[in-house]
Amino acid sequence: MAKILVVDDxxxxxxxxxxxxxxxxxxxxxASDGLMGIKSLKNKKVDLIITDIIMPNKDGIELILxxxxxxxxxxxxxxxxxxxKRKITSxxxxxxxxxxxxxxxxxxxxxxHELHKAVKxxxx
Length: 124
What we know:
Blueprint: E1 3-7, H1 11-23, E2 27-31, H2 34-43, E3 48-52, H3 60-69, E4 78-82, H4 90-100, E5 104-107, H5 112-123
Helix pairs in contact: 2-3, 3-4
C-alpha cells in the first residue's frame, strides 16, 4: 500500500500507529520530532506524513511549514493530529494546521476507524 511517516514525541502513540498502519499493509517509518522527521525524508520517499503538532525541537507546525516550502516534498499529503496542551487546545492546533493546507486532521484521542478514514482520504 503506502509508505507513511509518523511523527510524534510520544513513543506509545508511535508504536500504536505503527502497529495499526502495518496491519493495514502500509510501510511505516517513525520519527520522534519534526527535526527527525525532516531527516527521515532526506533518505526515503513517502506517500503520506502523519504528524503531531506539539513536540520538542521542531513542532508539527514548523514541520508542516518546512515541508510546504520544499519543492521536492511539498506535495506529500499531511495528516495533523493533536491532543492540545495547557491553554492551547487541540482545536486551535488543528485549525492552524488546516490553514496551512494539511489534508486531514485527527483530534486525540481518535479511533482506529477515524485513523483509517483520514488515511484513506489523504491518500485519495
